[in-house]
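Extended Data, panel c. Modelled sequence:
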Amino acid sequence: MPADNLESRSAASGRCGITVAYWRSKVDVKIGVADTGRELVVNSTASPEEIEAQVAHAFKDPSSTLTLVDEKGRKVLIPSAKIAYVEIAPADSRRVGFMVAD
């Protein structure tokens, strides 16, 4: 993951210091493409508002191309005229829990 996506904070806990890493929220973008049976799924670190603005801009001109960048830096290009629908949702994050045993 890109280094600019990571925030770290240190906290003191007893005798040892603990560093906790916080990742920015990720967004899942599902794109239905006309004349295909599958949808494209792009995991992005962009905000939902940024993705929505890019999609709206692409819809203004049917000859344009929607370009999205995923969390690994790969570009996905889709001709606007072929976009059937776009779904923007927060990505499911894995939850990790800690329990203190008695």
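The radius of gyration is 19 Å. This feature is highlighted in the accompanying rendering.
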